[in-house]
Structure formats: C-alpha cells, structure tokens
Design goal:
- The protein contains eight helices and eleven strands.
- With about 230 residues, the chain is an alpha/beta fold.
- The strands form three sheets. It has a five-stranded parallel β-sheet, with helices on both faces.
- Bound molecules: calcium ion.
Length: about 230
C-alpha cells in the first residue's frame, strides 16, 4: 500500500496541483481546507506525512503542529511557508515541524522533500535493530523510537529523535551544523543552520535538568555539537 500524505491547505488550486502530483507518484492523498479538519484527519487517519500550510482558517498551521506534537504524534510535518515570512520558518520548527518549504515552491523539490522525510522515518524504524542508547538518566530506544529520562517518557519529534540518536551513538564526537544538517535532515543543499540550533534548543529544554548548563548535548564553540558521555 502506498504512503498517505495529508494536505492541509486552504488554497484550492494548490491542493489540486499537490494532489495531482502526489497521486502520480503513488501516494494516497487526504485533504483538509482548514486547520481544525486537518488536525482531526491527522489524528484519525494516521497519515505518513503532513504538508501543512501556515495561514489557515479556523486554526493556523503552527497551532495544528503544536497540538499534534503535544498529543505525542511523531508524524513527519513539512510546513508550507510564505517566502516573505522569514520568521515563519523558525516558528514552524519551534512548533515541532520537521521541515519547511517556501511558496512558491518547485514541485520537484517538494516531492523530493516528501520522499526524503518519509524514507527517513521508515529507515529509522526498520534499520535500528534492537539498540538502546543510555547515558546518565537518559535512555534512547532506537527500535521503539522512544526517549525516556529517569524512566519517564519524553515526547520528542522525529528530527529531535534523529538528532539525539545521532549524537548519542558517538559520544564525544563533534558534529558541525553542516554535518548534522546532512545526517538528520538528509540533504545538504538546504543550508539554513538555524534549523540545527533551534532543534538543539528544543531538545535541551526537554532532556536537560538545566538547559542553560547542558550535560547531554554540549556545544563545542565554533565547531558544533556533541554528546557528553557519563
Ligand atoms: Ca493559506
């Protein structure tokens, strides 16, 4: 069975062109023209990926994204942001989106992103073996794709999980932002390094006792990030 993509977008013309192209690539497509309906479909139909517009009637894309993450969903989410709204990119990542693409977008690029985000998720789920990473109070289960601290579950997004698993797999190894971009986000041509910093900050808030004095994800000044080994 094909993967299912949920499109949440209020511009009919964009929905139609997305639907046409996604179906041609073999995806099942669900559509919602407002945020509330999108959230409802995301929860009940369990899509493999969501394309989420920002400006939507009834509930905006950031709120839909936050609501899904707060509910524990790890579905890959690509936000569709307007080119002129630079701040939207960071807001989207703060809300828990995995990726964003600016309008007007190239269909080829969008399809590549959809494919990369879905493949990434399946690879993580399939190739992880039965591996559990532990450091200090933190446990990362690569099979179940769960994170816990002192036995208590910590809700993380797909990208947060990938980043944490990457760093914890090689304690002490320093990764540059560019390397993390390529490893976790799967493409290196898309070079907004704030994506890495925002994701690290979000992760620290979730896993560190004191995000201002982190123990698990450390900064190597001028070089990048690494995981502390205990
Ligand atoms: Ca819109």
């Amino acid at each position: 069975m094909g993967n299912t993509v949920l499109i949440v977008e209020d511009e009919k013309a964009i929905v139609e062109i997305l639907k046409f192209n996604l179906k041609r690539e073999g995806y099942e497509v669900l559509e919602a023209l407002d945020g509330e309906t999108g959230l409802e479909l995301a929860r009940t139909k369990d899509p493999d990926l969501i394309l989420l517009d920002v400006m939507l009637p009834r509930m905006n894309g950031f709120d839909v994204c936050s609501a899904l993450r707060d509910g524990g969903s790890a579905v890959p989410i690509i936000m569709l942001t307007a080119r002129e709204e630079e701040g939207d990119k960071v807001f989207g990542l703060e809300a828990g989106a995995d990726d964003y693409i600016t309008k007007p977008f190239s269909m080829r690029e969008l399809l590549a992103r959809v494919k990369a985000n879905i493949r990434r998720r399946h690879l993580d789920a399939g190739n992880a073996g039965n591996k559990v990473l532990k450091t200090g109070a933190l446990t990362v289960d690569l099979t179940a794709m769960t994170v816990s601290k002192n036995g208590e579950p910590v809700e993380v997004t797909q990208k947060e999980f990938d980043l944490l698993a990457c760093l914890l797999s090689t304690p002490g190894k320093v990764y540059s932002r560019e390397e993390l971009m390529g490893k976790v986000w799967n493409y290196d041509y898309f070079g907004d390094m704030r994506t890495v910093d925002v994701t690290v900050r979000r992760l620290r808030e979730k896993i560190e006792d004191d995000p201002g004095a982190p123990k698990y994800i450390l900064t190597k000044r001028g070089a990048g990030y690494y995981s502390g080994s205990e």
